[in-house]
């Protein structure tokens, strides 16, 4: 070969070998916050919707604390249970300054395929275009949606744990929504994503009201996944809360059953691991004011549901951690829900927990029952951890739950 050509060939080969080192890293979109969609329910259910039945010419502003941060942001909206299209006339995202106030300098108008208006089709989600917005880890972001048309609210997240603000007219870009009404649910907003220069690890908390943060301090981000996110954010680990109050593994209730929503709420996030804490409502709801006519759940049926979730997680390459069901003796004494607990249900909880601990079928176990129970009375939650309703932990209990989950449990030994 001609020496000159040989030199060019050698140079080309060297550059080809070096190219991967100099190539720009691809961007990665990672979920940093989520709220699992639910269907609103008809009047007459034991609990209220805590949301207006219809929206018209109104702006709703929702605040969400993200877990990991990024320099670009996009949001997801869902009309999963709607029977009619929902028109969003304008959408904005900004850093929150508390309450309904936003940092006006950070406000960004959102587009969807380049347009400022978007229609949510019945049953469908939409994803906004990315916007440049510095969103540090654990930042609170405000998402404002303007609904110009008369709209039946059919898709929402019930247990907001955070005030949302409802104001007349298109006020989606205003710095504060003075005079706005507050609601405790989350209409349509289902996710926030940030862009990262590298893949990040993700944990999904998949559960019921105990994961959703029932009885935690409002507007304080004191759910157990919040405390976990706070601890892991500096390690570039996203924590997503896919809890639904009233959720069950095998039956629909205040949301569809876990088997039906596992793909959408967990696997679609492409997590590294999922913490499954669900089943107490499968045990407690039958025969109670929620479901007075439903036959009692059996431990074997519930375990069969767990096995399905384990198999689907494994098929997707997701580590699944089984959490034991927490004590609930004489739960909800002051609520309009009767007969949630009885000794037979307690025996079933103990059978299920024994299987979770001893079967070896989960990749790891989070023994929340052992953590929270009263040593002198194991069917009851310790007073220091109890919110007062004998079912849901308070802030201290939620923090203890998060603190008990180390990276060896979440991701395995390395």
From TrEMBL:
<keyword id="KW-0378">Hydrolase</keyword>
<dbReference type="GO" id="GO:0016787">
    <property type="term" value="F:hydrolase activity"/>
</dbReference>
<dbReference type="InterPro" id="IPR036514">
    <property type="entry name" value="SGNH_hydro_sf"/>
</dbReference>
<dbReference type="InterPro" id="IPR053140">
    <property type="entry name" value="GDSL_Rv0518-like"/>
</dbReference>
<feature type="signal peptide">
    <location>
        <begin position="1"/>
        <end position="23"/>
    </location>
</feature>
<keyword id="KW-0732">Signal</keyword>
<dbReference type="InterPro" id="IPR013830">
    <property type="entry name" value="SGNH_hydro"/>
</dbReference>
<protein>
    <submittedName>
        <fullName>SGNH/GDSL hydrolase family protein</fullName>
    </submittedName>
</protein>
<feature type="domain" description="SGNH hydrolase-type esterase">
    <location>
        <begin position="205"/>
        <end position="400"/>
    </location>
</feature>
<dbReference type="Pfam" id="PF13472">
    <property type="entry name" value="Lipase_GDSL_2"/>
</dbReference>
């Amino acid at each position: 070969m001609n020496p000159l050509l040989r030199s060019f060939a050698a140079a080309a080969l060297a550059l080809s070998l070096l190219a991967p080192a100099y190539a720009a890293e691809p961007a990665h979109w990672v979920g940093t916050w989520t709220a699992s969609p639910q269907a609103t329910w008809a009047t007459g259910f034991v609990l209220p919707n805590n949301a207006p039945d219809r929206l018209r010419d109104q702006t709703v502003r929702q605040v969400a604390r993200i877990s990991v941060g990024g320099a670009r942001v996009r949001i997801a909206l869902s009309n999963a249970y709607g029977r009619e299209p929902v028109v969003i006339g304008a959408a904005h995202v900004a850093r929150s300054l508390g309450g309904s106030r936003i940092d006006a300098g950070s406000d960004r108008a959102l587009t969807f395929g380049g347009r400022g208006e978007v229609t949510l089709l019945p049953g469908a989600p939409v994803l906004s275009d990315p916007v440049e917005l510095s969103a540090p880890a654990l930042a609170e972001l405000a998402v404002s949606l303007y609904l110009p048309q008369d709209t039946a609210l059919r898709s929402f997240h019930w247990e907001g744990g955070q005030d949302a603000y409802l104001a007349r007219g298109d006020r989606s870009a205003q710095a504060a929504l003075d005079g706005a009404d507050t609601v405790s649910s989350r209409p349509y907003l289902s996710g926030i994503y940030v862009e990262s220069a590298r893949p990040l690890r993700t944990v999904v908390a998949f559960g019921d009201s105990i994961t959703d943060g029932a009885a935690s301090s409002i507007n304080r981000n004191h759910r157990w996944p919040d405390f976990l996110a706070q601890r892991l954010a500096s390690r570039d680990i996203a924590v997503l809360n896919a809890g639904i109050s009233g959720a069950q593994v095998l039956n629909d209730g205040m949301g569809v059953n876990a088997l039906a929503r596992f793909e959408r709420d967990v696997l679609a996030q492409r997590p590294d691991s999922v913490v499954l804490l669900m089943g107490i409502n499968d045990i407690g709801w039958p025969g109670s004011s929620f479901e007075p006519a439903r036959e009692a759940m059996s431990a074997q049926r519930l375990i069969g549901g767990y096995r399905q979730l384990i198999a689907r997680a494994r098929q997707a390459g997701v580590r699944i951690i089984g959490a034991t069901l927490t004590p609930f003796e004489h739960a909800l004494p002051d609520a309009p829900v009767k007969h949630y607990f009885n000794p037979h249900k307690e025996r079933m909880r103990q059978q299920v927990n024994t299987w979770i601990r001893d079967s070896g079928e989960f990749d790891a176990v989070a023994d929340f029952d052992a953590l929270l129970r009263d040593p002198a009375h194991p069917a009851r939650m310790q007073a220091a951890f109890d919110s007062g309703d004998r079912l849901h932990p308070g802030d201290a209990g939620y923090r203890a739950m998060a603190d008990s989950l180390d990276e060896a449990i979440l991701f395995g030994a390395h």
